[in-house]
Amino acid sequence: MTAKTIVKAGLLGTLLAGLATQAAWAFPANMATSGATNPPVGHYEFCKTMPRECRQNASTGQPGVLTREGWKTLLQVNYDVNEAVTPMTDKDIYGVEERWAYPDTVGDCEDYVLLKRKKLIEDGFSPSDLLITVVLQPNGDGHAVLTVRTDRGDFVLDNMRNKVLLWSDTEYTFLKRQSTENAGRWVKLQDGRAVAVGTVRTQ
C-alpha cells in the first residue's frame, strides 16, 4: 500500500466517523446563504472570456449524494492538482494584479480552484455542487477554495492542504460563493464567524 493510499484510507475513515457525530457539531454541515452579491472582479473578467463556464446550472436544489467512490475522487483530484501546480502570484505570472485562468504548471489559489472544478465536472460531479468560494484567512488575507456540496455536508478543496475538510472544520471565515443555480452569479454566506469586510482580493 502506497503512502498516498494510506492517507486516503485514513481520511475516509475520519470522514465516516465524523459523519456519525455530525449532530453534535456547532455548525451545520451545509452552509447557509443570504442573497445575491457581486462576483469577484477576477471571476467577472473570467466569465467575459469564458462565457460557457458561467451559465445557468441544471440544479435540482439538493446537493449530490456523496458515495465512497465520489469521496475518493475528491481526494485524488485535490491531491493531483495541488501536486501538479506550483503556487505563483498573478503579478509574477502575467504582470497584473488579478487574472483567473486555468493553470498549466503555475497558478494562484483561484487557478487551482478552476482546474479542480473542471476535473470534477469531467468525473461526473454536477456543476451546481462545485462552487468557487471566497474566504478570509485568519491573518485577514483573502483566499479562494472549491466548495463541494454533498448530502454529507459542504467539503473544501484547498491548495494549501491535501486533506479535504468539512467547511466548518477549516480555520476560514466564509464570505461568498457561486450560486448553485448559475455559475456566473454569486451569493453571500452566513458563516457565524464572519466580520465586516470590504472587497477581498483572493491572492
TrEMBL record:
<dbReference type="InterPro" id="IPR010319">
    <property type="entry name" value="Transglutaminase-like_Cys_pept"/>
</dbReference>
<keyword id="KW-0732">Signal</keyword>
<feature type="signal peptide">
    <location>
        <begin position="1"/>
        <end position="26"/>
    </location>
</feature>
<dbReference type="Pfam" id="PF06035">
    <property type="entry name" value="Peptidase_C93"/>
</dbReference>
<protein>
    <submittedName>
        <fullName>Transglutaminase</fullName>
    </submittedName>
</protein>
